[in-house]
Amino acid sequence: MSSGISHKVLNLDNINPHIRAAKYAVRGELAVKSEQYRAKLAKGEGKDLPFDTVIAANIGNPQQLDQKPITFFRQVASLLENPGLLEHENVLTDSLGYKSDVIARAKKLLKDVKSVGAYSQSQGAPGIRQSVAEYIERRDGYPASFENIYLSNGASSGVNTLLHTICAKPETGIMVPIPQYPLYTATLSILDARVVPYYLNEEQAWGTSLDSITTAYDKAIAEGTDVKAICVINPGNPTGASLPAHDIKAVLKFAAEKGVVVIADEVYQTNVFIGEFISFKKALRDLQKSEPGKYDHIELASLHSTSKGMVGECGHRGGYFELIGFEPEVAQEVYKFISIQLCPPVIGQCIVEMMVNPPKEGEPSYELYKKEYDTIFAGLKERAYALYEAFKRMEGVKCDKPQGSMYLFPTITLPPKAIEQAKKEGREPDEFYCFRMLDATGVCVVAGSGFGQKEGTLHFRTTFLAPGTEWTNRLVKFHEQFMAEFK
Amino acid sequence: MSSGISHKVLNLDNINPHIRAAKYAVRGELAVKSEQYRAKLAKGEGKDLPFDTVIAANIGNPQQLDQKPITFFRQVASLLENPGLLEHENVLTDSLGYKSDVIARAKKLLKDVKSVGAYSQSQGAPGIRQSVAEYIERRDGYPASFENIYLSNGASSGVNTLLHTICAKPETGIMVPIPQYPLYTATLSILDARVVPYYLNEEQAWGTSLDSITTAYDKAIAEGTDVKAICVINPGNPTGASLPAHDIKAVLKFAAEKGVVVIADEVYQTNVFIGEFISFKKALRDLQKSEPGKYDHIELASLHSTSKGMVGECGHRGGYFELIGFEPEVAQEVYKFISIQLCPPVIGQCIVEMMVNPPKEGEPSYELYKKEYDTIFAGLKERAYALYEAFKRMEGVKCDKPQGSMYLFPTITLPPKAIEQAKKEGREPDEFYCFRMLDATGVCVVAGSGFGQKEGTLHFRTTFLAPGTEWTNRLVKFHEQFMAEFK
């Protein structure tokens, strides 16, 4: 040893095995390859490629795909970044189109945070959390307290906090819908805790079934798993499905009976085409009101984000969760955990405030806000349906009417020859299909295996965010050629 | 069980025990109490308090204490938030004081990120990472590649990523300086890994001693610890001490010989009053050049942040780390880990770009930039020395001349009666002293026990960020009264 060790300290076999085990396909190999194509095209070296643009349909990232931000939000944000502009109100209003409510909001938020360059309280600025509480009250018709609101670095960070808090040992199990957004399984890998999958019902528009849940729960208990929580993504990702009231109630009753925490990921609550969004908080309060004393002990954590909806401010990393029914001593440990990373990004906290407290009817910026909001919604719906129609023209591809979120999750049926070829290449069949799709069309989606799916079924998830509908024709053409090759 | 469980699922005994074990005093009980005082005063209910302002001297948060942001940074940021303003260049330049380089920089950054509301690549926008690489090259005189740069949600998130990657099992040990910024010990608690403390040399202005390091290492090895990394905070937090070249070299040689990764937390690299900052990267390359072949295998991770220096943009959560000498397969696992949380806040990434690539001499915004930079530096130095002088007037308080960072870390010697009283109240003696300080003066600091200290020694850490020097007199008066009470 005296001449020194000349090999590296770290290698695949000795770093954290839980990170090794974790999988996150949304930004996996396929996405990396699509970025390589994009870089190639940007350098003008893409003449050999059969496409001239890369379409990132793998990730819910609206503003990377030309969705414009909400004007009010960004006008306010510009004043938060440069409060010196507030000394030139006339210029702002007369020459730059800033209305008086923009200026008022910036002043209010600067009182809340002092500076977007200062750390806030770890839980987030109290004034902003108060706005969130008021939003929740308006939405649900039940009280909410700013003390139970935790602003977070996107909802992803909130999920990370909750799972870190709840997962106490390797036997801890968290129920996760299949298919799910793989933040859950990846984080549980890293925590060396157990995923308890419950299957969503593909035959019933990806509905949540109590049977499925209780089957999964019983199986896990029999295996010695200490099941501590059930995650519900509502509206669903990747499915878009919104749970009807009776299904939410069933989940809550299940949680009360078995003693599990409910984690309600509600980031797509304003992305609903079919059905309606009912918050778990409202359903819980309704249930508690209708059967007093019986369900008062339920612990619920509900998450929201500025990344989705019509807001689409992914890069700002704004989000929050509300803790309902948690013991104060447990909330204190949550507080301690989040305080180690100091606080969520402050400008992102401000975007949260504006998301939950947008211009109201009668206010100067309302008209434009409403127009932008409705235009974005209409555009999302139009593109969702264009994709849906395209899928109808693709042999063996089955897709429900777009229900919500930012995704479609069609089922694909591949010929045996294709499945064989996939195996030869060491890939899951839907992965193989998606790689071929990327190579032929420049469109990057995510294979269903990345989200979990019932054995023997194949899917892929695509967003409907990319502008226009031309690119859907690329998919139709590719699929024809693929089927011709492998039939 | 059929009538349902009526107690809570989660309690202190069944949540993640590693979070229970973690301690982070910077935002602990004392800080919480100071916030309660602040709220009381804000509501006008503080007539019974012996102070009329709360001074948050517990946390390096300059802009919460009236430090103004750098104008150039915030002008650019306002354009990034509202790119529509770029359609009114004349108004910006003629009426709002935006110079042409502000506009040019905003355009460059918008090309890099497309929108601050869009997720970037998980590692951060390539163009911004390129600016960071160029900064490192200019600073050190050695090449750097954007591929080895990882933008992060503050440097804290980078530390979290690195420790998560390296800590593979409970026996993994990470060497940590005592005293240290408690992010390290708190994160290692959460990871259920071992802290291997090495003591900084208080008698020699908190210098880093190889003896101390090797003693700590040998002890850990004997205890069966798998020591994988050594953390060095340079300049130090809480100590402010800058490592001279020969000490950095000694650490690198130690790391090479024993086979440990070096984690260099360099967030205070521009906060230096005594000595000079030498980056670990430069020292490593110098060493590799002077003794070719012998030290090529060293793995080094260097961290920086927009929260400190003269930039002070804590709330923006901007930071980065550079990985030097890591195996590609390990870097890929780091990439996967960070991709689960998608990307660092994009406006924060842009602040990083401006920190490493500020206005240059000859450019229109340079004069103001330089003036602001120098004024902030002079203010920090003045307040540091005012505190230092105040400590000289406090019996039993010993403090070195301010060396750097944003903190002073004086030693305190308390009379036996005070130590008894602390024991009666169930507190560490320095904690007890700090609580009394808060109650008497409204000044919130952090007890030395929060950072680690040699057995039998007592300290506290205070920032020198609060404006003015009046509040230092509160401390002198309090200390007099404290000593009178307990002598």
Question: What structural class is derived from the secondary structure elements of chain A?
Answer: alpha/beta
Question: What is the name of the CATH architecture of the largest domain in chain A?
Answer: 3-Layer(aba) Sandwich
> How many runs of DSSP E, i.e. beta strands of chain A?
14
| CATH-defined superfamily of the largest domain in chain A | Type I PLP-dependent aspartate aminotransferase-like (Major domain)
As a whole number of angstroms, the C-alpha radius of gyration of chain A is 24 Å
Main β-sheet, spatial strand arrangement of chain A? 2-8-7-6-5-3-4
Name of the CATH first level of the largest domain in chain A? Alpha Beta
The tally of helices of chain A reads: 17
Residue ranges of chain A: pLDDT <50 for 5 or more in a row?
Answer: none
C-alpha termini separation of chain A: 61 Å
Please, how many domains of chain A?
Answer: 2
The CATH topology of the largest domain in chain A is what? Answer: Aspartate Aminotransferase, domain 2
- Output mean pLDDT of chain A: 96
DSSP strand content of chain A: 5-15%
| Overall geometry of chain A | globular
| Main beta sheet of chain A | 7 strands, mixed
| Share of helical residues of chain A | 40-55%
Q: Short summary of the structure?
A:
2 copies of one chain form a homodimer. The first copy, chain A, has 487 residues and is of the alpha/beta class. Chain A is built from 17 helices and 14 strands.
Structural overview:
The structure is a homodimer of 487-residue chains. With 487 residues, chain A is an alpha/beta fold. Chain A folds into two domains: 23-53 and 372-486, Aspartate Aminotransferase, domain 1 (Alpha-Beta Complex); 109-356, Type I PLP-dependent aspartate aminotransferase-like (Major domain) (Aspartate Aminotransferase, domain 2), CATH 3.40.640.10. Chain A is built from 17 helices and 14 strands. Chain A has helices at residues 17-21, 29-42, 71-81, 89-95, 100-113, 126-140, 154-166, 183-190, 210-222, 245-258, 280-290, 328-339, 346-356, 366-392, 416-424, 429-441, 470-486, and strands at residues 55-56, 149-153, 172-178, 194-199, 226-233, 261-265, 300-305, 318-324, 397-398, 407-408, 411-412, 443-444, 446-447, 460-463. Chain A has a seven-stranded mixed beta sheet with strand order 2-8-7-6-5-3-4, sandwiched between helices. In chain A, α10 packs across α11 (280-290) and α14 (366-392) runs parallel beside α17. The first copy, chain A, is globular, with a radius of gyration of 24 Å. At the A-B interface, α1, α3, α7, α8 and α10 of A face α1, α3, α7, α8 and α10 of B.
